[in-house]
Design a protein that fits this description.
257 residues, alpha/beta, two-stranded antiparallel sheet, 7 helices
Length: 257
C-alpha cells in the first residue's frame, strides 16, 4: 500500500495540480499548518485525510504526516510538485519489487520563474519513496530521509514548479532564514566579528556556487537572477543570525550581572 504525504501552508495555487497527480496512490495524507487561503478546502476534494499540525520544523511536520499514513510505503511529495504518469507507474512497480530495497531516490525537473531549468542544480535526487517502518525525516531545515537499509533509484522524475516570481522567492527566503535562526536558539552565540565576516564573505561565495558550480551561468539571465537572489538570501540569514547573537549575548550578560 502506498500513502502519498503532503505538508501544506497557503498552497491554494498548487495543491489541486499536485493531488490530482496522486490518483495512483492508495491514500493521500495532507497535513496543513494553518493556511488562511483555500488550501484545506481544495485538499478535501481529493482526500478525507486532512489534518492540522502546528508547524515547528520541516522534518517534524513530515514525520507527523508519515505517522498519519496507513501504507507500508510512503511517497513524500511537496505541494508544488507533480507526479507524471510514467513515474507513477514506476512507483507502483517499485513498491511491489525487491524486498531488500527500503527506499528510492527520485529526481526532480525544476521550473523557476515559469521556465524549465536544464542545467542549474540538475540532476536533483532525494529519497522520496520509502518504507515507513525503517525510514524517517531528520534535520529541521533542508530535511532529508534517513534509512536503515538499501536504497535504489527510480528513472522517472517529479515535475517541480518552484518559485514563480521574485515576490514568492523573497517570502520563502524570509520563512526559511527565520526558521534557520530559530534553530540556533539553544546554541552558544557566535562572535559578532565572525558573523560580520560571514555577512561579507558568504553572500558572494553563495553567488559563485550557484552561478558557476551549479551551472546557473548556462541558464542565461534566469541563472543570474537565481544566483543573485541566493546571495541575498544568504545575506538575510547572516544578518538575522547577527541580530540574534547580539540579543542572546545581551540576555546572557544580564543573567550573569
Amino acid at each position: 500500500m502506498i500513502s502519498a504525504c503532503v505538508i501544506t501552508r497557503n498552497e491554494e495555487t498548487d495543491i489541486a495540480r499536485c493531488l490530482s497527480s496522486l490518483s495512483f496512490a492508495d491514500e493521500i495524507v495532507v497535513v496543513d499548518s494553518g493556511s488562511v487561503d483555500a488550501t484545506v478546502e481544495k485538499a478535501k476534494e481529493f482526500t478525507d485525510k486532512v489534518f492540522f499540525n502546528e508547524f515547528s520544523d520541516f522534518a517534524s511536520q513530515k514525520n507527523f504526516a508519515v505517522g498519519k499514513a496507513s501504507g507500508e510505503w510512503i511517497l513524500s511529495i511537496d505541494a508544488d510538485e507533480v507526479v507524471p504518469e510514467e513515474l507513477a507507474a514506476e512507483i507502483r512497480d517499485a513498491a511491489e519489487g525487491d524486498e531488500k530495497i527500503c527506499a528510492f531516490n527520485v529526481n526532480r525537473i525544476n521550473y523557476m520563474y515559469g521556465r524549465r531549468l536544464k542545467y542549474f542544480s540538475q540532476p536533483d535526487y532525494n529519497i522520496r519513496l520509502f518504507k515507513k517502518d525503517v525510514c524517517a525525516f531528520t534535520q529541521p531545515v533542508h530535511e532529508y530521509v534517513e534509512c536503515a537499509g538499501e536504497v535504489g533509484t527510480l528513472k522517472g522524475s517529479f515535475l517541480h514548479y518552484s518559485i514563480a516570481s521574485l515576490a514568492e522567492h523573497m517570502e520563502k527566503a524570509r520563512m526559511y532564514t527565520s526558521l534557520e535562526v530559530d534553530i540556533l536558539s539553544g546554541m552558544k552565540p557566535i562572535g559578532s566579528v565572525m558573523l560580520l565576516l560571514k555577512m561579507l564573505i558568504n553572500p558572494p561565495l553563495r553567488f559563485c556556487q550557484n552561478y558557476f558550480l551549479l551551472k546557473g551561468m548556462l541558464e542565461g539571465g534566469i541563472g543570474f537572477i537565481i544566483s543573485f537572489n541566493a546571495a541575498i538570501v544568504e545575506l538575510m540569514k547572516c544578518y538575522k543570525c547577527f541580530k540574534w547573537s547580539l540579543k542572546k549575548g545581551k540576555q546572557d550578560g544580564e543573567k550573569l550581572g
